[in-house]
Write a structure and sequence with these properties.
The complex is a heterodimer of chains A (213) and B (188). By secondary structure, chain A is mostly helical. In chain A, 75% of the residues lie in helices and 0% in strands. Chain B is 68% helix and 0% strand. Classes of the chains: A mainly alpha (213), B mainly alpha (188).
Chain lengths: 213, 188
């Protein structure tokens, strides 16, 4: 086939194109995946017993704020990374701001507590459970992100995957907060960001395999 | 023509193409393929590949990718940068697939700024033709009529007993299937 023929074929069958679709698909898929992950947490682990009284307290709101801000930034970077020629790196590095804010708050809390309590404030009773849960429930949004990315044109699959992984862990943070019984800032500032880092690696490894186009 | 001039010229043209203007889309594709051919020829030569048909194969795969990724374009961004990023991705993918280690690739982005236009289309290899052969007969016939016989989509559609829109959708699906076949060819 000649290149001219290919050009004719593509030009004559041209149809109007919706350039906003990827953006809408990203946000909608993230919202639905977050709801699905929350339902999965409720069905498998159940809500924390004191959820009715606890949801409006600072630690729970802190988890939601951390999850929502990191998810928002990572999803915006993810969406940009599906569009060739735009560089999402600067956008993605903004996730360091909410994480730094969480870590600073944790340091303030630790500084005010006696040294003997530092370990219990940081490790709580369920840090392994938190790590495992955020990573596992994060696979639900990660699958949705793979489906969206396959309809985009990511030219840096590792970066797209890392952004998707971070966003997925952040969405799972929100979902898991209906169960997570830990209410100390040092706990929140340690294990949730670590889970986000793990998911960034998972995404960076998975996307070159599943999204190549 | 400098890259900035090309951008000034092609940006409004591509926006019209995205709105459905077939003539504008043809102008865009012809102008960008001249630019991309020069870029790809230069980069492939640096990788030790001087076969003109290989340049044309990668160019065709890139054009197909541009076509199928039009919705990924951000209207506020430079269209030449968008096209270049896709060409670069397809070039790296092509070299990796055809047996070069990715770490040996020296793809430099400045080359795109300086790439000499290349209007001389060589004969492509058989990649795209083979991909076309593997489509379902009905779609292949439709594409053949529009491509080789120069029919309008409306004419080809009525010959096949379908509406023009249905024919465009069928052609689009056919092109997507061809792109998928190209991606899987020689997959590692």
């Amino acid at each position: 086939m000649k290149t001219d023929e290919l050009i004719s074929l593509m030009a004559t069958s041209n149809q109007p194109v919706d350039t906003g679709w990827l953006r809408r698909a990203t946000w909608l898929a993230a919202l639905l995946a977050m709801i699905a992950a929350t339902i999965a947490v409720l069905l498998t682990l159940g809500a924390r017993r004191d959820l009715a009284g606890a949801w409006a307290t600072a630690p729970v709101l802190g988890k939601l704020l951390l999850g929502a801000s990191v998810a928002g930034i990572a999803l915006a970077a993810f969406q940009r990374s599906l569009r060739p020629g735009l560089s999402p790196r600067g956008h993605l590095s903004l996730i360091l701001l909410p994480i730094a804010a969480a870590v600073l708050s944790a340091l303030v809390v630790l500084a005010q507590a006696p040294a003997g309590e530092w370990a219990s404030l940081t490790f709580g009773r369920s840090w392994q459970a938190c790590l495992i849960a955020v990573v596992l429930y994060g696979l639900i949004p990660l699958t949705a992100m793979i489906a969206v990315a396959r309809r985009g044109a990511p030219v840096d699959l590792r970066l797209t995957g890392a952004a998707a992984g971070i966003a997925s862990a952040a969405l799972a943070t929100i979902a898991y907060s209906v169960h997570c019984p830990e209410d100390t800032i040092p706990f929140i500032a340690s294990w949730y960001p670590l889970a986000m880092g793990i998911m960034a690696v998972v995404g960076a490894l998975a996307f070159p395999r599943f999204v190549r186009w | 023509m400098s890259l900035a001039d090309l951008e000034t010229q092609l940006h409004p043209v591509f926006l019209s193409a995205l709105a459905g203007d077939a003539a504008a889309y043809r102008v865009f594709l012809e102008a960008i393929s001249v630019r991309l051919r020069g870029y790809l020829r230069h980069q492939l030569a640096r990788a030790g590949r001087t076969e003109p048909s290989e340049v044309e194969d990668v160019l065709q795969e890139t054009l197909l990718a541009l076509h199928l990724s039009r919705h990924s374009y951000d209207p506020a961004s430079p269209v030449t940068a968008w096209a270049h990023a896709i060409a670069r991705y397809k070039l790296v993918d092509h070299l990796r697939r055809s047996g070069r280690h990715a770490s040996n690739l020296s793809i430099d982005d400045e080359a795109y700024q300086l790439a000499a236009p290349d209007t001389v289309a060589s004969d492509a290899g058989l990649d795209l033709t083979r991909a076309l052969q593997s489509l379902p007969e009905r779609t292949r016939k439709l594409i053949d009529q529009v491509k080789v016989q120069g029919c309008s989509v409306a004419e080809a559609a009525s010959a096949a007993g379908m509406t023009e829109t249905a024919a465009k959708v069928a052609i689009h699906r056919g092109l997507r299937a061809m792109a998928r076949i190209l991606t899987k060819r020689n997959a590692p």
